């Protein structure tokens, strides 16, 4: 049997879970299939390492969520995801209230693009208000600043992973089964044949030393996130920059993910409303992210510009509602959310493209990534 060469372009969550599922498929043997992950900078160096890591039954698109929530639970059981990538169930709600004066000024964003994560919620479901509704164990936001807390889903319907740990674990687990990781930036996909028999033959890339090389390929999966259209211009995917920070709280805090609407005092904030998402993580870390902005996509994850003023403003906003969140800032970062520019909201582009046999795209997962959707395509070809 001839050897199949499967090249996955992109070492984000989609590329790494693609490699995981292919190498863990019952029909996979590393003797007749070589799987290579080709990553331009570093595994999980983009959104897949800097996202919030929320996993929810109420996410969208529903067709993928119905499969992937249970799959996250299974992966965590099988590979000790609790320890390895911080898998756990979490409370989740919409917090509305006021911020208090904490520290003086930092720059704030002027143009904001919602990441639209809450769009998956069914209107009216689980949104009944009870006085302020603040749960007893959500004791790290100030009760006297709370106007309302609305739980966004029932028990067991929202979970979380540490996205960097999850993505790098998927890469390692694929490597344990024979996948190769190559650091290099894909510059072109080569083809052979024409018409109905046109198929991929290789991937050209620039290695870390700056030289051009080619990996032979019988299947190419393009999972380059917001950079996908730089390789496949006909694919309508773009990127939205979003900033985030991680904070070591002043004491361990309970497991909640909060979508906030904070009315900010004009005396010390440039904007009157802040809407950071705040996720407590198990490793004594709290993650917070801001809405997106219009900064153009740079050439790689390494070139992403971080506007420190936006990160400082984010810290100031979360500090304004919680003394516990006034701890040490452990990371100030930015990354690009992959968006599909047309078609149904929140639907990634998955499947064969560009009239080439065995050229598969898996990108555009917006603010809800759904593991890899390429399993059927790739394993069917083994
Ligand atoms: C602020 C923020 C918060 C988020 N929170 C959540 C959340 O809580 N839950 C959730 O499910 N989703 C969340 N998301 C969405 C999620 O992070 C993304 O949908 C997901 O990470 C996209 O993964 P990806 O592998 O497609 O892209 P990426 O993570 O961008 O990975 C693409 C990879 O391809 C590489 N690459 C690009 N071009 C080339 C090339 N030419 N050659 C080789 N490699 C290349 C890049 O270096 C990169 O490593 C969030 C996103 C943002 C921005």
Automatic annotation (TrEMBL):
Domain FAD dependent oxidoreductase: 6-368
Region (Disordered): 116-135
GO cellular component, one term: cytosol
GO terms for biological process, alphabetical: retrograde transport, endosome to Golgi
Domain of life assignment: Eukaryota
Protein's name in the database: FAD dependent oxidoreductase
Species in which this protein is naturally found: Schizopora paradoxa
């Amino acid at each position: 049997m001839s050897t199949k060469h499967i090249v996955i372009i992109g070492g984000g969550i989609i590329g790494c879970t693609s490699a995981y599922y292919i190498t863990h498929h019952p029909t996979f043997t590393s003797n007749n299939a070589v799987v290579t992950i080709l990553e331009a900078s570093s595994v999980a160096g983009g959104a897949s390492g800097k996202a919030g890591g929320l996993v929810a039954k109420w996410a969208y698109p529903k067709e993928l969520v119905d499969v992937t929530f249970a799959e996250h639970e299974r992966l965590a059981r099988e590979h000790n995801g609790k320890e390895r990538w911080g898998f756990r169930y979490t409370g989740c709600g919409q917090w509305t209230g006021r911020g208090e004066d904490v520290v003086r000024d930092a720059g704030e964003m002027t143009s904001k693009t919602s990441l639209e994560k809450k769009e998956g919620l069914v209107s009216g479901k689980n949104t009944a208000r009870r006085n302020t509704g603040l749960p007893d164990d959500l004791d790290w936001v100030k009760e006297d600043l709370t106007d309302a807390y609305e739980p966004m889903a029932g028990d067991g319907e929202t979970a979380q992973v540490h996205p960097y740990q999850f993505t790098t674990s998927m890469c390692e687990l694929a490597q344990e089964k024979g996948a190769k990781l190559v650091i290099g930036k894909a510059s072109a996909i080569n083809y052979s044949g024409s018409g109905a028999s046109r198929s991929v033959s290789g991937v050209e890339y620039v290695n870390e030393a700056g030289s051009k090389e080619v990996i032979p390929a019988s299947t190419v999966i393009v999972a380059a996130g917001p950079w996908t259209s730089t390789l496949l211009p006909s694919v309508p995917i773009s990127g939205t920059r979003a900033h985030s920070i991680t904070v070591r709280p002043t004491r361990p805090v309970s497991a909640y993910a909060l979508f906030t609407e904070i009315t900010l005092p004009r005396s010390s904030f440039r904007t009157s409303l802040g809407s950071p998402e705040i996720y407590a993580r198990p490793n004594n870390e709290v993650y917070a992210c801001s809405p997106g902005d219009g900064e153009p996509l740079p050439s790689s994850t390494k070139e992403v510009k971080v506007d420190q003023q936006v990160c400082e403003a984010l810290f100031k906003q979360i500090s304004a509602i919680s003394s516990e969140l006034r701890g040490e800032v452990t990371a100030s970062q930015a990354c690009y959310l992959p968006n599909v520019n047309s078609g149904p909201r929140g639907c990634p582009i998955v499947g064969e493209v560009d009239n080439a046999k065995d050229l598969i795209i898996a990108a555009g997962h917006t603010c809800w990534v759904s593991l890899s959707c390429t399993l059927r395509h790739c394993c069917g070809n083994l």
